[in-house]
Amino acid sequence: MSVPAAELVDALRAAGLDRATGVPCGHLAGPWQLYDRAGDLGPAADEGAALAIAAGWELGGRPGVVLCQNSGFGNLVNPLTSLVLACGIPVTVLMSLRGWPDPAGDEQQHATMGTATTAMLDALQVPHAVLAGGAAPEGVGLPVGDVLDRAARARAQRLPFVGLVPRGALGPAADASRPEPDPRAPTRARAVAALLDRVDEDLLVTTTGYLSRQAHHERDRDRTFYMQGSMGHAAAIGLGLAGARPQQRVVVLDGDGALLMHLGTAATVAAQAPPNLVHVVVDNGCYESTGAQRSTSGHLDWAALGRGLGYATVVTDGGVDEALDAALSGPGPALCVLRVRPTPDEVYPRASSGSGLPELTERFRAAAGRPASVTTGGPR
Fold this sequence. Notes:
Elements: H1 5-14, E1 20-22, H2 29-37, E2 41-43, H3 47-59, E3 65-69, H4 73-87, E4 92-97, H5 111-123, E5 128-130, H6 144-156, E6 161-166, H7 188-199, E7 203-206, H8 210-218, E8 224-226, H9 234-244, E9 250-255, H10 256-261, H11 264-272, E10 277-283, E11 286-287, E12 293-294, H12 302-309, E13 313-315, H13 320-329, E14 334-339, H14 357-368
Parallel strand pairs: 1-2, 1-3, 3-4, 4-6, 5-6, 7-8, 7-9, 9-10, 10-14, 13-14
Antiparallel strand pairs: 11-12
Helix pairs in contact: 1-2, 3-4, 7-8, 7-13
């Protein structure tokens, strides 16, 4: 059983929540698209920023709702505790429940947060309720009206409220549509295959989502760390690796939405200036793995941003091959941005589909500890 997305959005609007912000989740794709279609959606870079945006709406007398996934709950905790709860700002959040009720029924990276979400909300004394339907066990969860009644009671007490949405509890938006991509632009597959042709024995960190899946599909390598969770932190992992293995080149394969989620890490990379780090960003203008919802990269001047951050080499123009060659041969840290068209129907299994995350991690750790072959042309 699932609740039609339009029914939920109508109920939210009737409760005075006429706008939305957040970070997209495939299980909240229906409400996200309906708010977006109406011009009432403002995507945020991360969940904590979304909560602060909604707090600003509340302070201005025009409340809205935050849409997010429980994997991003950690990003919410600081503004939740030190802003919203501390100041008595009653923000409403709709959060999908990944890794619940049975962690084994979802992807491995959701297991810990799936079992901890409600306990964390209880510990923080944040009112919450589970929406009935989908993966929720029979008899667990409330209808939409009852969930929003609880949200209204929390609001009357100047408290935030979190509505928890199990997988499958919401239906899609009617007549769901996707933007038409530029057919002349290269694809994700083209960009990833070209990069893998060039990394040789380099250490490679791939960001969460379809980029990691594509890299695993194109060429599984023991020197590739497939980062399936912790969105936005691939560059930080790469920075740590570059410092730990200074004689070896480290390449980070990142996405536009993931990089923007923790853009400050890019400034840290440039400030620490590891000469052996190459940061490749595949910009498709959307969050492809959650439904191709638009990101905020469309207005960016990547060249100006890279130079302003302080990367030693910045490559944002030219074809895929030319851009990668320039970034890989230039002084580091290097930033290379490849604009591609979305291909949301081209989906491959995760690296962990045939192995556990700890086993993949240990395989990479062993490979990273082995010296690369002697080569020329800079750190390897």
